[in-house]
Amino acid sequence: MNALALKERFRLSRFVLGENPAPGPITLNHRRIFILPTPRGLGFALLTLLLFFIGFVYNNNLVYLLSFLLASTFFITTVHSFKSLSGLVISEGLAKPVFAGEMAAFPLHIYNPSAMPRPQIRIAGQIETVLSLPADSQNPTFVYRHTARRGWFEAGTITLYSTFPLGLFRVWSPLRFDLRVLVYPKPAVADLPFPQAALGANQEGASQKGNDDFYGLKNYEAGDSIKHIHWKAYAKGQGVFSKQYGGDSNGELWLELDGTPGYDLEERLCQLCRWVLDADKAGLDYGLCLPGVLLAPASGAQHRQSCLEALALCSP
């Protein structure tokens, strides 16, 4: 770890935001741990000082003894509070992509290499997260952040803190990792039919006309022809869908940004995201056409992920 200049050590943002992002595990030491009295600790110190002056004014040895006892407790607590975080090793994990509006879960691994247990460790902003680390143990946990927009989303500053043992001091350590997650566009709520499939020829080289042209899928309704049921999706337990026909098609579905309804880029990307999920659920072969990106028709989890990543990183 590189030494910090004196000016850098007393930079105010360092106490709140932490140091620059660092890859790999971070060990908490004197440089990364800060400590200040809590409101309870300030009240405790004021009471100790008041007792001392009472003992001085009335020359009462018992009050002197009580004030010295409280003062020693106050100062010894600083050591135990510092040790609650000192020596812990923090490392980041791999965050899974989410859709805009969902909570992103950033995994953290907190390792206690010492023979001393570390109780009551908390993560700032997450009241429900209270960790107790036994001696020589590792505890995986998650830091949650709310996502609002698609694209890359950084975890930002993650602050560990504790008020152990008596709540007189708050000891904290702000940490920053190279930790980010890819946020997909939020799928549109509107249940619009798939766009017109690409034109193509049949196996004999002649175009299929009229009602033999595949258009898309819809939820099965009473009265739909049994011949139009998408049996492949039904066999996978994905639900019952009816095939729609109309126009010319070779059975491959193309999803294009230019032909997608919407008032702006974000709304159209949300609709494309909905179509990608629906087409994947139905087991269709579908392609994606975006500015600078062309993904050939395919199906499967890998193709779905590639399409969602392209939508998340799409720029006009």
What are its keywords?
316 residues, alpha+beta, 5-stranded antiparallel sheet, 4-stranded antiparallel sheet, 7 helices
What would your notes on this structure say?
The chain is α+β, with helices and mostly antiparallel strands. It is 28% helix and 30% strand. It has two domains: 6-184, no CATH class; 210-312, no CATH class. The chain has helices at 6-9, 12-16, 39-58, 61-83, 231-235, 265-282, 301-312; strands spanning 26-27, 34-37, 89-92, 98-99, 103-112, 118-123, 126-133, 137-146, 151-154, 157-162, 169-176, 180-184, 214-219, 241-245, 253-256, 286-290, 293-298. The strands form five sheets. It has a five-stranded antiparallel β-sheet with strand order 2-11-10-6-7. A hairpin with a 6-residue loop joins strand 10 and strand 11 (169-176). The longest helix has 23 residues, at 61-83. It is elongated, with a radius of gyration of 31 Å. The two termini are 42 Å apart.
Briefly summarize what is shown:
The chain is of the alpha+beta class.
Regions with pLDDT < 50 over 5+ consecutive residues? 197-212
Number of DSSP strands?
Answer: 17
Q: Which radius of gyration do the C-alpha atoms yield?
A: 31 Å
Spatial sequence of strands, sheet with the most strands: 2-11-10-6-7
Architecture blueprint of SSEs:
Layout: H1 6-9, H2 12-16, E1 26-27, E2 34-37, H3 39-58, H4 61-83, E3 89-92, E4 98-99, E5 103-112, E6 118-123, E7 126-133, E8 137-146, E9 151-154, E10 157-162, E11 169-176, E12 180-184, E13 214-219, H5 231-235, E14 241-245, E15 253-256, H6 265-282, E16 286-290, E17 293-298, H7 301-312
Parallel strand pairs: 4-12, 15-16
Antiparallel strand pairs: 1-3, 2-11, 3-5, 5-8, 6-7, 6-10, 9-12, 10-11, 13-14, 16-17
Helix pairs in contact: 3-4, 6-7
